[in-house]
Amino acid sequence: MKSDRLLSILLLLQTRGRVPARELAERLEVSVRTIYRDIDALSATGVPVYAERGRHGGIELLAGFRTDVTGLTADESRALFILAAQGAHAALGLDAALGSALRKVMAALPAPHRPAAEVTSRRILVDATRWNGGPTRSVDLDVLQDAVFADQRLRLRYRHSGEPETRTYTVDPYGLVSKAGVWYLVADRRATPRLFRADRIRSATLLADPVRRRPGVDLADAWETLRRQVEERPGGLDVTVRVRRDRLDMFLRMNAAYLAELPEDDGDDGTDAWVTARLSYGFLRETRQLLAFFDRVEVISPPEVRAELARAAASVTELYAF
What we know:
Layout: H1 2-16, H2 21-28, H3 32-44, E1 49-52, E2 58-61, H4 74-79, H5 86-91, H6 95-108, H7 114-123, H8 142-150, E3 152-158, E4 167-179, E5 182-189, E6 192-197, E7 201-210, H9 219-231, E8 237-244, H10 248-254, E9 259-265, E10 274-281, E11 297-301, H11 303-320
C-alpha cells in the first residue's frame, strides 16, 4: 500500500540520512519515478524532505526533523531486536512484515539507544530448531490461524504417532505454539485440553460454530497444563544402567527426558570405566531406545527390561541372518 511505502521511506531517511533514490526504489521494489512521486506526496503533507541531484545526491530530511518512540529504555530497545528463528515467522507468512517492522522500530527508537539495538541485532541470534532434526513434513498453518483469530471451531483429521489411520476430532482452539521448531495446536476437545502436532494434521476444516473455551482459560493456561503433562508424566518403570564413560555425554543428551537422577561415577579413571545412571520410563517398549548404544550401555535392573532388550536384539539378528 502507498501509505506503508511512504512510512517506510520516512523511517529509512530518519535512520540513514541521505539515501539515493535508486536505492530506495530497490529496497521498496518500485521504480525511481514512483519514489519521486512519493517524495512529493510526503512534502505535500508537511514533511520537510528534499532531493539533491548529482553524483553524491540523494533524498534527505531537513536536519532536526524526526519522530521518536519515547519511554523505551536501553535494555528494552535491545530486547526488541533479539528475535526467535525466522522459520517461525516464515511459517506464519510474516517474514516480510518482520523486516518492515524492524526497520520502522529502528528508525523510531530514541537516538541514544539506536546503536546498541543495531549491534544487538547483528550479534545475537536465537535459533529454536534442534540439531539433526531430520526432514519434516511441510505444515500449512493458514486454516489453523484463521480458526485461532476468528474464534471458530475446527474439524481435524489427525494421525497419531504409531497409528496408520487418521482420526477425526472437533476441537475448540486456543492458539498455536512453536516449540523447538515444531508447531502445535492447543485446543479443547470436549472441554479437555489437547495438544495436536501440526505436521500430523492431515486436514483442517473451519466450522461456522464459535469456539467453546472453558471460562477464564487462555492459551498460556492451556499450554502450561499440557506442558506439565508431557514433562512431568509418571515414570512407573525405574531402570538402572551402566554407561561407558566415553559415551556418557551422548547418552545424557539423548536420554535427558528419562533421567531420574544424575549419574554416579564408579570411580574408575580408565578409558573403559562404567558410570551408573538411573532412568524412568512410561512403558516397557520405550526402553528399546537403549539398544542405540549397543554394548556401551548395559541394563542392570529390572530383569524384565533386560528380557525386553534381548527379545528386540534377537528380532534384529533374525531379520539380518543369512
